[in-house]
Design a protein that fits this description.
This protein is an alpha/beta fold and 542 residues long. Helix 11 links the parallel strand 8 and strand 9. Helices cover 49% and strands 11% of the residues. The strands form three sheets. The chain has a six-stranded mixed beta sheet, sandwiched between helices. A five-stranded parallel beta sheet has the order 6-5-7-8-9, with helices on both faces. Strands 3-4 form a two-stranded antiparallel ribbon. The structure holds 6-O-phosphono-beta-D-fructofuranose. Its main location: cytoplasm.
Length: 542
């Protein structure tokens, strides 16, 4: 794609000056033109550094790319994760329950429905207080042990949908191998009333294994025997053997499949905490929202296709305008974990150095995703967004309706959200800044001296996504929107978005270092690492 004639034209267009203020002034229909709706979500993309001709060229790029045929391959269950020879079929997990889902000649629908039925049964027992612990007490707490895709999705969604909580069981997440996490989680819990889920597709991830062992030890220390542990431990994994070896009985292992990537697994039993919190009916709404976004993605023409639009804008900024970062700014306290979730989704999927055939890439791929809930960020890093020479395209996300009673707060929050996008787009000129200073009674000289500091260049691009409300349905649609955006960008860059070999090296190198730290091996690494280990050991012992 990057070598096509259209791309060359786009690179040329990217060099030409463009003023968003002028574009809005010249075209009263701009906002109407650059907006789209899908599954009730409204996307305003008018405040982007595009003109009609740039947009037409970007759409041409999408037409020439293989988005539609690659999407078809994904839907067919072709092994588009070519380095692991795996299908990419997370969409099947949220498909309509009546649709047959045939992969390699086997209909997977019964397995998926059986998994939902087992989740529903356990949730029913937990909600009713019928699942008893080894001392006959009802379960009050659940510890969810997992990391990366086995943690970020359920944690983010549980937080996002906190107002829909119907469960008497409190949920605690443990991911990091930092011992503080598990120590803090178990501090106020009682094993007799605690259920543990070990969530790991591979059941081989060090952090998850060590945290699971620590929690199992906590049970043992409190007097639980093997049978008690078996009663309290569950797993979600595709490695039944390793889960069984750990001591988890077969009836307590919910399935994972190799055709679901970790960061795309929220829709599987990895979503159990969300289903527990919401009840199975509302969890189905989350799946429905994602399913409807999939349908939109599959059927909408390119120029009205929301994931395609977001993908094209992203590629435009990264590859034509040289923007390396992308801010994700949810104006919703409940969505504050969304940036971390999308970080894994986008950066682990598309942060690649070679194309699908292993040829080195010359152009950058995934952006550096960062962000936090508005308005907190306005008092921290928005300064850089407004005035730095760096341009950081930003996605603003705002639910229109909220469940809390402080309606005026919500109007103020929304006002800030819109004001930020407006300020980023229009900026403040020198003359405007000077007039502002003069209005405070300052002299001409003082105004001229201060005005440059108050200038905001404007022309900073943003998208605004408006959700009718933050419900399971719209959250499902929003997550699927970003998933499909990442997919489209992977196609545009001709990379495999579904492997993550880059994370392996650090894992491999940590083993010999751990052996040195625990005195099983001698220190023999590069000079810097060697010195750090020696210093750490000295301080650690001191
Ligand atoms: O960080 C690498 C990774 O493989 C992620 O892709 C995955 O989500 C995470 O580790 C956890 O893996 P698992 O579910 O196998 O423990």
């Amino acid at each position: 794609m990057m070598s096509s004639a259209v791309w060359a034209e786009l690179k040329q267009l990217a060099q030409q000056p463009l003023s968003l203020r002028q574009e809005f002034a010249a075209d009263p229909k701009r906002a109407e033109k650059f907006q789209v709706n899908a599954c009730g979500i409204h996307l305003d993309f008018a405040k982007n550094l595009i003109t009609d001709s740039i947009w037409q060229k970007l759409l041409e790029l999408a037409k020439q790319s293989q988005i539609q045929s690659k999407m078809q391959q994904m839907l067919n269950g072709d092994k588009i994760n070519n380095t692991e020879q795996r299908a990419v079929w997370h969409m099947a997990l949220r498909a309509d329950s009546k649709t047959p889902l045939v992969l390699d000649g086997v209909d997977l629908q019964p397995e998926i429905q059986a998994c939902h039925a087992r989740m529903a049964e356990l949730i029913g027992q937990l909600h009713q207080g019928e699942y008893k612990g080894y001392q006959g007490d009802a379960i009050t707490d659940l510890i969810w042990i997992g990391i990366g895709g086995s943690l970020l999705g359920p944690q983010m969604a549980c937080e996002a949908l906190a107002p829909f909580n119907q469960s008497p069981v409190r949920i605690h997440f443990a991911g990091n191998i930092d011992g503080a996490v598990v120590s803090d989680v178990v501090k106020n819990l009682d094993p007799a009333t605690t259920l543990v889920f070990v969530a790991s597709k591979s059941f081989g991830t060090e952090e998850t294994k060590q945290n699971a062992l620590a929690v199992r030890q906590w049970f043992t220390d409190k007097g639980a025997d093997k049978a008690a542990i078996a009663q309290h431990f569950w797993a979600t994994s595709s490695n039944i053997k390793a889960a069984a070896e750990f001591g988890i009985v077969a009836e307590h292992i919910l399935p994972m499949w190799d055709w679901v990537g970790g960061r795309y697994s929220l829709w599987s039993a990895i979503g159990f905490p969300v289903a527990l919190q919401l009840g199975m009916q509302q969890f189905q709404q989350l799946l429905k929202g994602a399913r409807d976004m999939d349908q939109h993605f599959i059927h909408a023409p390119l120029e009205q296709n929301m994931p395609v639009i977001l993908a094209l804008l992203g590629v435009w900024y990264i590859n034509a305008k040289g923007c390396q970062a992308q801010a994700l700014l949810p104006y919703s306290h409940y969505l504050r974990f969304l940036p971390s979730y999308v970080q894994q989704l986008d950066m682990e999927s598309n942060g690649k150095g070679v194309d699908v055939d292993g040829k080195p890439l010359t152009d950058a791929t995934a952006p550096v995703i960062w962000g936090d809930a508005g308005t907190n960020g306005q008092h921290a890093y928005h300064q850089l967004l407004h005035q730095s020479v760096l341009a950081v395209p930003s996605d603003f996300i705002l639910p229109a309706k909220v469940s809390h009673e402080l309606k005026d707060h919500h109007h103020r929050l929304a006002a800030h959200c819109f004001a930020q996008t407006q300020a980023l787009m229009q900026g403040k000129t020198f003359d405007e800044a000077k007039a502002e200073v003069l209005a405070t009674g300052a002299s001409e000289a003082e105004a001229i001296a201060l005005a440059p500091h108050k200038v905001s260049p404007g022309n900073k691009p943003s998208n605004t996504l408006l959700l009718p409300e933050l419900s399971p349905y719209y959250l499902g649609a929003l997550i699927a929107l970003y998933e499909q955006k990442v997919f489209c960008q992977g196609v545009l860059w001709n990379i495999n978005s579904f492997d993550q070999w880059g994370v392996e090296l650090g894992k491999q190198l940590s083993t010999p270092i751990y052996q040195v730290l625990s005195d099983q091996q001698k220190n023999s690494f590069d000079a810097s690492t060697q010195a750090l280990i020696a210093k750490f050991k000295q301080l650690n012992l001191g």
